[in-house]
Amino acid sequence: MKVMVTEMEEGVKDNGASTPKSRVTNQCRVLLSMRLLQVLFLFLVLTFGISVVSIHMIKFLKIQHLDPVAPTTLISMYGRGTVTLDSFIRPPSNVWHTMNDSELLWRASMEPQRNGYPFKRVPKLAFMFLSKGPLPFAPLWERFFQGYEGLYSIYVHALPYYKSDFSRSSVFYRRYIPSQAVAWGEMSMGDAERRLLANALLDISNEWFILLSESCIPLQYPIPILVNMFFAYGR
Ligand SMILES: *[C@@H]1O[C@H](CO)[C@@H](O)[C@H](O)[C@H]1NC(C)=O
């Protein structure tokens, strides 16, 4: 603009001198159109710059705001995407878990607030063995439980370092719960019993809870008779 103004001033001065009026206006027009072109070019460059910046901004914002609600995150929160009743009522095939005592007791304290069940529930007897580790009468117990799958569940609390070697076909296979050290006649015995009970309560079908030691042996009553006795007594 400054250039144009000086030129115009010159023109005015010139005008005062001998230069014709038309020449000055022609110069002005050329200068004006060149300015206009410059401004247009600047505008074009600016628009291009803004569009490039906004494309990058959109990408950036997408990453910032869309990622936390991405479908993969939701799926990982709710397992395979659907919550089924089965996932609440089916007992795990392996009683091992990673909950500590306070988490376990909290989880075990949950109970339904409605009467009746919207599925077929077969009440079970929970046999809870408090043992140092080995179960010397395991063969007798195997015979006792044989043929009554679905009517009982077994939980064994052993010393933490004990590794059981029951075969896959045994009723005691993978029935050892996460345990802690227990000393005879001390409060840790009570804690172990509570731990056994809490683990048994995780299975909604368990209704009667029988605490046993490794030296207990089963007598003549088969499980169905025991179940009937318990439920008759319960009524
Ligand atoms: C169990 O774990 C929770 C969470 O990690 C912790 O806050 C709590 O103190 C733990 N309880 C025990 C008894 O270790």
List keywords for this structure.
single chain; 235 residues; mainly alpha; 2 domains; three-stranded parallel beta sheet; 3 strands; 9% strand; rod-shaped; binds 2-acetamido-2-deoxy-beta-D-glucopyranose
In short:
With 235 residues, the protein is mainly α. The chain has helices spanning 2-16, 21-66, 71-77, 86-89, 101-108, 138-145, 187-201, 223-234, and strands spanning 124-130, 152-157, 206-213. It folds into two domains: 2-68; 91-110 and 119-234, no CATH class.
Detailed description of the structure:
By secondary structure, this protein is mainly alpha-helical. It has 8 helices and 3 strands; from the N terminus they run αααααβαβαβα. It has a 3-stranded parallel β-sheet with strand order 2-1-3, with helices on both faces. Helix 1 packs antiparallel against helix 2 and helix 5 packs across helix 7 (about 185-200). The chain is rod-shaped. The N and C termini lie far apart (about 105 Å). The model is unreliable at about 5-20 and about 65-80 (pLDDT under 50). The site of 2-acetamido-2-deoxy-beta-D-glucopyranose has 4 residues, from helix 5. Keywords: Glycoprotein, Glycosyltransferase, Membrane, Transferase, Transmembrane, Transmembrane helix. InterPro entries: BC10-like, Glyco_trans_14. It is a single-pass type II membrane protein. Pfam families: Branch.
